[in-house]
Amino acid sequence: SCPAGCGKSTTFRHIFTKFKIEYPFKWVSYIELKEHTETLEKFKNNSDLNLAKVTKFLAEEILNLTSFNMEIFIDLFYKDKVVLLWDGVDEVSGTYLEITSTIFSSIMLTTNNTQWISTRPQYRETLQNELNTTSYELTAYNEKNRKEFFEKCLG
Fold first, then answer.
1. What is the Cβ-side half-sphere exposure of residue 133, based on CA atoms within 13 angstroms?
2. Rounded to whole angstroms, how far apart are CA atoms 117 and 115?
């Protein structure tokens, strides 16, 4: 977590790129939650959630996969070879905090897939408690950090 404009999304996109290269046999997805509010709206009143429903929802609705890619994703998902980078929980949290937390928890409690979740500080403690996990805080880039980051990224 960190305040708006400190580099959460930029950092997540960088991590996504690194993971795709370093873990070629894993399925790595970067998910900007604000792009999925309509999809979350359809799913939020679903009271009977299980891992199969969450996986199908994730593959079909969030990732919008073709049938071929869906088969690969689901196979890797159940083999714990998926990394999900959920960006912007704070941007959908007022209405969708409960359903996103349920999705995160379902994946976390029943698989060993990796999830990274970004939010602003006001939701950090809530998510940390609900997911029973440790959270980390990003420190905003200063001028020197920005320059170093872009030099590393752009080579």
1. 15
2. 6
Instruction: Please calculate the CA angle 60-65-69 and round it to the nearest 5 degrees.
Output: 125
pLDDT digits (tens, 9 = 90+) for 23-49: 999 999 999 999 998 888 888 777 677
**HEC readout, 26-76:** CEEEEEEHHHHHHHHHHHCCCCCCCHHHHHHHHHHHHCCCCHHHHHHHHHH
Total number of residues shown for the chain: 155
Q: With contact defined as beta carbons under 8 Å apart, do 28 and 20 qualify?
A: yes
CB atoms within 10 A of CB 88: 21
Give dist(CA 97, CA 47) in Å, integer.
15
Total-model pTM:
0.81
* Residue 6 near residue 139 (C-beta atoms within 8 A): yes
Residue with token string 């900007």 = 32
Q: Is 139 in contact with 3 (CB distance < 8 Å)?
A: no
